[in-house]
């Protein structure tokens, strides 16, 4: 892997570079042959919050993850966990596809049985709770107030003006978003 590590509002020291390269290099165990692609890493600091973005473009796959944390090393560990989950999920999909088609698979290295046992819960989309409620007609401002009172990150409601079902949600930056349906 060829590393391209950039810093925004942070100096990329040799220690940071070594740590990031060491952690990302551990992803090579998931591949039969190590990818020869470039690894793009963007490190940034804003208001005492460290952010790391990792992008690994490959032939049939784009691995990308982003993480925020107060500690850059902890953010790096978290972003590697996200990338590993993406690889395991993609590997499972590839294996299913090739089992159906009977084609050989040589994209990912075989992992030990313990890792495959960890895959099972991620691939199951089990609904563990169902809620039913009547949608009250309201405007988006009232929906945001309701969402904040409930402590949720999203709220579904019927728009009082159009009668459509809409969703308000809280974005990572603390502001709000609106999803309108037709």
Key words describing this protein structure:
182 residues, alpha/beta, Double Stranded RNA Binding Domain, SHC Adaptor Protein, 2 domains, 4-stranded mixed beta sheet, 4 helices, 8 strands, 35% helix, 29% strand
Task: Briefly characterize the structure.
The chain is an alpha/beta fold. Helix content is 35%, strand content 29%. It has four helices and eight strands, in the order E-H-E-E-E-H-H-E-H-E-E-E.
What integer value in Å does the Rg equal? 21 Å
Instruction: Identify the overall geometry.
Output: extended
By CATH reckoning, the class of the largest domain would read Alpha Beta
**End-to-end span in angstroms?**
46 Å
| Integer tally of domains | 2
Count of extended strands: 8
Order of helices and strands: EHEEEHHEHEEE
Structure write-up:
It contains 4 helices and 8 strands. The chain folds into 2 domains: 2-123, 2-Layer Sandwich (Double Stranded RNA Binding Domain); 137-180, 2-Layer Sandwich (SHC Adaptor Protein), CATH 3.30.505. The protein has 182 residues and is α/β, with parallel strands linked by helices. The radius of gyration is 21 Å and the shape is extended. The strands form 2 sheets. Strands 1-2-3-4 form a 4-stranded mixed sheet, covered by helices on one side. The protein starts with a strand and ends with a strand. 35% of the residues lie in helices and 29% in strands.
Strands, helices and their partners?
Layout: E1 2-8, H1 14-25, E2 38-46, E3 49-57, E4 62-69, H2 72-101, H3 113-123, E5 137-138, H4 140-150, E6 154-159, E7 165-170, E8 176-180
Parallel strand pairs: 1-2, 5-6
Antiparallel strand pairs: 2-3, 3-4, 6-7, 7-8
